[in-house]
Amino acid sequence: MALQFGIFDHLDDNGIALADLFETRLKLIEQYDRAGFRSYHIAEHHSTPLGMAPSPSVFLAAVAQRSKRLRFGPLLYVTPMYHPLRVAEEVVMLDHMSRGRLELGLGRGASPVEIAGFDVDPANAPAMNREATEVVLKALTSDILNHEGKFYRYKNVRIAARPLQKPYPPLWFAPIEPGRAADAARLNGNVVTLIPNDGVKAITEAYRAAWQAQGNKAADLPLLGVFRHVVVADSDTKARDIARSAYRRWREHMEFLWVWGGLPFPLVKIYPEDLDALEGMAMGVAGSPETVRRYIAATVEQTGINYFVGDMAFGSLPYEAASRSIELFANDVMPAFR
Fold first, then answer.
1. Collapsing DSSP states into helix, strand and coil, what is residue 156?
2. What distance in Å separates the CA atoms of residue 252 and residue 258, rounded to the nearest whole number?
3. Residue 36: phi, psi to the nearest 5?
4. 30, 67 in Cβ contact below 8 A?
5. Integer Cα distance of 259 and 186 in angstroms
6. How many Å apart are CA 112 and CA 121, to the nearest integer?
7. Three-state DSSP class for 81?
8. How far apart are the first and last CA of the chain?
9. pLDDT of residue 1
């Protein structure tokens, strides 16, 4: 199976007017579509400059209209912050609006400050997510929804429409522990993780073991991906000059709400404060096409992934620099892995 490529986007504040941020990002999405990326994944965040699209469905409705082949979806809908039946209805709409290009990510969320802001006890988020996921999948596959659970109850609710993709759009999860990867395998879900390479290897091995234990064929293996920051330019020096300040701003956004809420930032060992340290941990790359090709080849070898997901527009990175980076990546990096 050839390595496939996707995009992950926090859609964080880059200092320009919000309307211009949305429009330039949609222009980049048109470019991803033309360039042959498989999928575009958007994060969900609230009350923070890290995520300026707190309603993924609203932004993805525009993505559906501005692309033709690109698959797309939330990574993830933070289910404890939603009414699950509403999530199911939005999934159905987006799947039909895109004529079957939606990818469905469901998760518990990572930030207790964000979750608590919606009057949800963060301690309940994992259990709420498990039950909400069950409800959403029931609603996508039923004509009448009945459910009696701890957090959600539905009795004789009529479902007006089903997704275009059957039984529902491909599922996505973002595990950071091998056990959660095995859970995803049992649901035939795809995964993307953001942890360092040694941890990714444990994720992919756990997934493959659970997948094979169900009697599935290796050729049918879902996508096992890793998320990394990527900037490509005509030389290593130019790429790093562009990426350093952009990454620093993104890192400030990543930490922002934790600091604001008076909580220790939990990802400090994954995301250091400067680009050089990030590259030293192999958690990102800024360089010429040749440097980036070597980096991706090494990542695949070290992790066992079959899906590489780049964050190619982040922090203060200008639109023009991001567009040039995507052009070089599509023309001079991706073909080496086909």
1. strand
2. 10
3. 95, 15
4. yes
5. 37
6. 8
7. helix
8. 9
9. 63
